[in-house]
Amino acid sequence: MYNISPRVAMLSYSTGESGKGKAVDKVRQAVAIARKSHPELKIEGPMQYDAAVDASVVRTKLPDSEVAGQANVFIFPDLNTGNNTYKAVRRSSGAIAIDPILQGLNKPVNDLSRGCTVTDIVNTVVMTAIQSQSEN
Predict the structure, then answer these.
(1) CA distance 35 to 47
(2) Which of 4, 6, 49, 129 is the most buried (most CB within 10 A)?
(3) For residue range 106-121, what is the model confidence (pLDDT) as tens digits?
């Protein structure tokens, strides 16, 4: 069994303090809430995808980061960005993606794309079963 510590990148069009605007502020606020709720997590943002995964980019953009260049969990700022990016990365790299995971509902409910594979269905069923076990 692998014990992989999550390194969470809250993605944005801006990295660190480089950008301004409502969309970047939303990500900064989400990072603050997540850190307050779960201080044990390594979570940083806002961060562009290249800074999240490429160590050579990190030296310029976020040299003191514990997450940048090593992220293994990616939180997208909105449905449009998340849906397009994860599908592009998944289809071009063969990465495993369990998508989308819906939260905030009374019961676990998840969705599948019309282009999903049998593996996608199995992974989503497993994720939904895990979510249902963690309910009170």
Answers:
(1) 15
(2) 49
(3) 888 888 888 888 988 9
Query: Are the C-beta atoms of 87 and 69 separated by less than 8 Å?
Result: no
Structural domain including 57 reads 1-96
Hey, what are 98's tokens? Answer: 């369990």
CB count in 10 Å sphere of residue 103: 9
Tokens of 28: 């900064």
Q: What is the pTM of this model?
A: 0.73
Indicate whether 79 and 33 sit together in one domain. Answer: yes
> Does an H or E element contain 8, and which?
strand 7-11
The angle subtended at Cα 39 by Cα 26 and Cα 101, nearest 5°, is 55
Among residues 5, 12, 2, 23, the alpha carbon closest in space to that of 50 is found at 12
Q: What is the rounded average pLDDT for all residues in the chain?
A: 87
Q: Report the CATH number that the domain containing residue 51 is assigned in CATH.
A: 3.40.50.10750
H helical segments located in 1-136: 22-37, 49-53, 55-61, 79-93, 118-133
